[in-house]
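call fold(seq) -> tokens
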Amino acid sequence: MRTAHPNDGRLEQYRKQKLTPEEERSLTAHVQTCSFCATRLQVMERLESVLDSAAADSLPGDFNTRLLARLAAERQSPEPVKPVQPKQRFVLRPEIVNVMVAAAATYLFVASGALKLVVALDQASLESQVFSRLGAAVKVVGQWFGSFN
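ret:
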């Protein structure tokens, strides 16, 4: 953060020749010895030059007249304002969600190998492995379903 220089306000007055002759001589001597103020003064002069040239070049001479005429014409015959339509949100119908969850659960059941365990009918391994794989499947379906929100 830059700290304020004692001559910050006086430089603008100096540029616009609004100082007394004594103040002007004093500030001229200061600018010759202070690189900060000399640079700041150059930047102020360049900025004013750029702004002056941009303002002169940017608008045609009859701009104000044409603008006022157009505004007056719009006041006389305003166009009806169209209501803004809210954005449509993508919403899944419950029937589609149910079918998708059932299909995903079936796929995960078959793909995880739980079907082999059910067919093998080994009670001990069936319970432990089905429940661990079912928990993993529920987690995957929950993550997948959460991606729609």
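The helical segments are 8-15, 21-33, 35-58, 63-76, 94-111, 114-120, 123-146.
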